[in-house]
Structure formats: C-alpha cells, structure tokens
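To whoever is covering the structure queue this week,

Two jobs came back overnight. Logging them here so there's a record in the thread.

Job A:
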Amino acid sequence: MGLTRICKQIFFSVLILTLGSGILTAQKKADFVIVIDAGHGGKDIGARGVVENEKDITLDVALKFGQLIEKNYKDVQVIYTRKTDVFLELWERARIANKNHANLFVSIHCNSAGNKSAYGSETYVMGLRRMEENLEVSKRENSVILLEDNQERYQKFDPNDEEAVIAFEIMHSAYLDQSIKYAGYVENEFTRSGRSSRGVKQNIFHVLRENASPAVLVELGFISNHDEGTYLSTEKGKQERAESLFQAFKKYKQEYDEKDGRVVVEEKPVEVERPVAGLTYKIQILVSKNKYAPSAKQLNGLTDVEVVQAGDLYKYYYGNTSLVSERDQLLNYAIKKGFKDAFVVEFVNNEKLIGNQNYRIQFLASDKKYRDRDGKFGGLKDVLRIKQGKTHFYYYGSTKTYEDAQKELNYVKSRGFRNAFIVVFDGKKLLE
C-alpha cells in the first residue's frame, strides 16, 4: 500500500472538512445551527406508502420538528433544506449544511420493503460497519442520484480498497461519536413513545457523506407496512415522531452545552397542554345516507374514520382528542383533505343516551339468516338480528355511553369484523 497516497487522501479529506465547515473555532459560542432535511421531494416521491408517500410525510415531520426547536430554543438557528414540495439534489442538501456551519444535520426519511410485515424505525450514521446488511436501504436512499443531471459529482467508494477505507474512516471519525450519540437518543425516544425500533446502524449515504458535521439519517418507519404506514400518515403519528426527534435533540443540546463550557441559559420549559376536562373532540367530515368502506374514495384517504348510524343517516367522524391544539390540527387537516364543511363536534365523556336509546355494533349484513350455533359470528354471543327487505342485519352488544360503544366496537373488530360500526337503537329497534 502506498503511504504517500494515503497521506494525500488524509490531507485532502481533512481539507474538505475544514473548507466545508469553516474554521470551527471561529463559530460564535452562542449559536447552534441544526439543518433539518426532509428527504426526497418534487419529482422524487421516495417510497410509496399504503396511504401517503414518503416525500409528504418527511416534509410534515421536518416542519413540526423544526417548529418545536424554534419555539423552545432562542439560541438555536433552524435551517430547512426544503419547506415545500421541491426537488433537491443530494449534494445540495449537504452544501446547505456546510455553508451554514451546521452543528447537527438530521435527514428524515421513511422505509419501505417488499416484505409488508417489515416494521420499526432505524437511524443511520456514516460508516462501514455491517454495510452489506443495510445495502437495500442505502441503494434506495441513494437512488435519487438517477434523477439528477450531474451524476458524476458523486465519487464512487470502493469498500475493498484498503487505502480508500482508511481515508474514509479518518474523514468521518471526527463526527462519528456525536452522530451515534444523537442517533441513539432518537431510537430511545421512539421506543419510549411506544413504537418499535430496529436500532442505530451504519452505512454510506451520499446525503451524509459530504457533511462536515455530526449527521444522521432517520428512517421513521416502514410505510409499506399497513399499520405503520397508516400511523405515519396521520397527524398524531407525525406529531409524535417530531416530538421524539425533539426530545432527542434536547438531550443532545444539553450535553453539547455542558461539554463546550457554555453558560447554559435555562430555557422556557415546554408548555404541556392539558386536556379539556370531560370533553372529547372529533371532526365530523361527512353525513350521508350511504355506508362507505374505510378505503372508499369518498373518505379522501383519511384513516381511522369512525362511523355512527343514527336513523337513516351515517355520520363520519375523524380524529379523537381532548386537546384544543390537536383538535384544531385535525380540523385543518380534514379541510386540507377536501372536506370543506368539516366541523368540530364535542362529546361529553360518559354521557348516557336518554330513555331506551342505546348503542349497538353492526358487524354483518347478509341475505342469509344465521343463528349463534352456525359459527358465523366469530364467537360473539347474544346477537340481535333484524330483517329489512331481503337483508338480515346482525348487531352485537348494548351500551349507554359512546365510550363503552367504542370498546365494544374494538372488540368486534378484533373478532375479524373490520368493517363493523356503531348504530343508535331505541330499545331493540333502529332509531328512526
């Protein structure tokens, strides 16, 4: 191996870092710059999700993450690589970080796999360790290069070239520990929020490779998985992911300040919004005489929509919260999805229906007449059957509060009746 060649590679690697990042000691000690990169965008949609595509999810999470930092840290400058649906080449994203002397670079992505059961978050840092294991992820995230005009600007890296490996490791060793630290915080926070984590990993990503700063690439989850893809398409899922990234940043920033000997100004504590006592908010998006399936085009891609039949009308509700801020976010999102007449409905917790009125769960409709012993009810007992015309409708349970009805609904769905919904009765007759 040529020692002179290695020395030259090391010299130019260090020179690139120095020129890219500026003279590190010249940074103002009061400033911390974080560059938040929403992966993909414009003509590059990224991975296709079961509900929403990668480029849209990453942008929403990036903006929410940045807003949390801006609200709670006056000494941190937040820079976004993109704030709208535009296409950026990979080298541009790194250039933005280097030009602004970033202290941390966070690139946000969503995962996808042919195996629809694949599930969980991953956070990557630059490195060679277990590279083959993570090859599919790097191929997908680097494939955006095929959409770029000047693909020759990306130098090929040969992991079998011993000299290239030495130069590569020296170039990125200065920031590896810090990158791993933040990546670990991110995955810990995802786990704390009740989600599944696949851990911190290493690989070569072009969006990280040219960065002269601690840098991570976060895969929020697999949007090819029905459950995780649906979760990441909701306002709740995006907000929770953004809050996990923010909590990880708080820990990273605190250690950064302490290590750097800064005078830590106590930040204004994050205001914790309290739920409105006794109320639950839902967004009514639609009233119709028709019963729509969850995947029906009339629901415009909204997920977790609740249906309640009262008389001959079906009411469709989106969201469920006791927080005013989240209520407003849900309403705005429903309007954004095309429901211009959507409005907020207040449900009084544990309020009982009057008189003989009660909630039941419709779980089956058939032209055949079934009985309990026929084994068609998935183990549900005391089923009420009502015939209308030539159709037999089957109902389970009888509760007085909406909260209990929701519990019954979840139980019925767990027995295999995914299209079940809530119906209001008057005694044992449908409410007219």
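Job B:
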Amino acid sequence: MTLHHENRGVRTALALAALVVAGGACSRVVEVVHSEDCSARPNDPDCAPTPWPTTGHSANSDPWIVSHHDSITEMSPSVLVLNFLNGVSSDAARATAQRQVYGIAEGSRYHGYSDPQAPIFLNYQINRVIDLTDRTVPAGWTNPSSTQLPVTPGGAFDPLALFSARYSAAYGFIDPTTPSRYLSLCELFEQGLINEVWIEDGETGIRRVPLNAERKQVYDTSNHARPNMFDTFDACGSGGGCLQDVTCRVTVRMAHLDPMRGPGCDLEVRGWGIDDMFDALPAFAPTAATFLNRDFESRYGVQFDGWENLCDSTGATCVSYPSPTMATGTYANGTAWTINPFASGCGSPDFPPNARKRWDWGSAPTPNLTPVQSSCEHFGLGDGINGADALETYTSDKVAAVDKTYPDCGGGWQIYWRQNIPGLNNAAKTAYGAPMRNWWPLLFY
C-alpha cells in the first residue's frame, strides 16, 4: 500500500494518532520506546555507542536502526550521484555534491551556532559519480541534460526508469552472486550499498528531476514498521514523475543537485524531506508539528495548521506581525484572523519564525528585520516561565553571517533551522521529563 502526497502545500494535518500529553499551547508527545530498543537495555554490549553503517546493517529501513536509534553517534549515508548535465565533468559534479555534504554536516551539529564543539552527526559519503552526459551532443539538441535522461512519452522526467535494468550497467555494481549481471537501483538500496541518489540535470521544465522525493517506510505509533506500507512524498509539480510506482522493499530517497544556484537551495529542498517525513512517523509527528509550526489549529484555534495553508507561491504577503507576539491576516474568504499572544515554534525550510510570505528568509540585500518571538533555540528545553520553552526574538540578522557561506534560498536560515532540530546530545526533554530522542536517524527509518 502506498500513500501519496501530490502537493507539499496541501496535506493532512500532522495530528496523527499518538499519546499526547496535555500541556496547553505547546503539547508534545512522549516519544515511544519499546522494550527491544537499546534505550531500554543500555548496558547490553550490543548497544554500545556506534556509528552507522555498521557491519551487517547499512540499508535504509533496517530494524537495527530503530532498535539502536539512541546508540548511534554518527550516520554516514552512501550517496550515488548521477550527472546528466551536458558539459559538466564528473569532477565538477562531485564538487557540487561535496558542497552539499558540507552543508548537511554543518546543519546536523545540534546548536552548533553557539557550541563550537558540537559534533557532526550526518557525514554523507559520495560513493560514485556516474557520468550520464552525452560524449557528443547530437545536432539540434537544445536541452541542458543529456539524451540519457529518462523521460516519459510526454517528455517528463521518468524516475521509474532509473530502477530498470537499462541503467544498472551504468551504475557499475556487479552482483557478487552472479558476476555476469549488475545490481539494480532497488538492489543497491535494499543491500545498503547506497542510501540516497542525487541527480544533476540542469533542467527547469518538465524534464527536471523532482527537487526532493522519497518513498518512505511507514511506522505505527510504537515505531514498528507497517508491512508493505510506504508513504510517497515529493515535489512532483516541480519536474517529472514521482516514486509511487517504485517497488523497493526499503525507504528510497532522491534529491536534486543544482550547480547554477547557491548551496542554500539544495539545502532547502532537502529540508522538505525532513518536513514531510513525520507523515510516516506518527510517534514523532505531534512533537514535530509544534517545532515546524504545523499545529496552529489546535494550538491557537484558527482555521489552518500552518503558514503553508495560507501562503501561495506568488510571493504575496499573507501574515503580518503588529508586535513580536501578535500575528494577523485574512482567510481566503476575506475574514480576518488574529493570534494574540503568538509565539512561533521554530519553522520550516520555507517559513522562518518571522515569515510574512513564503520564502521570506530575509537574505541580503533585503533582510527581514520584523521581530517575532520564537522558541526555536529553546525547543523542548523547558527553560522559560512555568517550565515552558523560553522565547527569543528572531530576525534574519541572526543568520546573516551564515548566509555568506551558504548563499541562496535562505542558506543561513536552512543551517540554523537544522541546528535547532533535536539532534545528538540534545538537552531537550519530552513532556514527561525524559530525554528527547535524536531526530536525524529518522531520515533512514
């Protein structure tokens, strides 16, 4: 069974079935720990701190990741890079991928903006860069990507073809049990030889690869995998096809590489995958909804869950902040709404705490200096009044320096947002006072 989300902006709320602890506007779930988890048997030698992959456990959706979630000290996913962009060498494609590796690593350092010693948790490894460009571009060929890019009869990118035997030889992974054949893309995922595919194509129309795509294993509220159930979510509208017809037995992850834009843009689209993954992870979803500002209906009694339900892609202002603790706007029918007092959670890749419209990152030369109170840096810390998370004023000044290192698409915000996600050694706690679990292993559930 596959669940398919066709549009990131119109989704069901994240209020999935889970154990919720009533705690006012910022209710959070108690994240489930079941008896076979290492968190329940920390003295077991099998549960000693360890990096991933480890011997015998390198594939996405391996139950070992779930049971050893709290023992993992670093994750080093293996990436297969496919380069279809004519005129770009494998070395240049690798360099584009490597700058993304650096950005993801920096973003995985919990509170790294204030803790220089915060360790990297996500340390991606580029397995291979596969040259799928045209050695000789055919006469009259005007597309930036090569003739080898798989497309449907209608000319749209066709991701399913990448999983066919047509491309297996190009990937070059020989089947150790049958040396005369090559492993398919599904087999590479299922055997843990790769954990993600990144694709460089240079396209802007229907031939463009989806900016972020995932077919994720679905779990129940006790973090047990639901057999044969996958949740497919991707930016289908931004390019070609989706992954709902893929039949791999584990989570499949795919993302775009853009050498023409700054590294912040590839960080942004990968952030969509973080944003969306909680649809398949109901034990974590309500807590994540507060962090991502997707629980406004239950938190504030308005008729929307988050800004993405109000703000379209035209760049029109959809939210105003008369004060740092008040938000106002209008519904589609013109009726006014007000949230007062308002305190932002952290936000999402497209909406920082003080967003007045979609993509309102406030990158130079047009900073967004509208002050809004946010619990971003204090999420789960309970260090405010009466044990609530403390609030701080957020403006784009907070991330301006990082924007210079990771320009474009609010790169400074993308790094800051990631560094506030509960990560390794985070000090956050659940509503019952238990340590909040590291969210990064969830990427590979």
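Note for Job B: The CA atoms of residues 351 and 358 lie 6 Å apart.

Please reply-all if you pick these up so we don't duplicate work.
Q.
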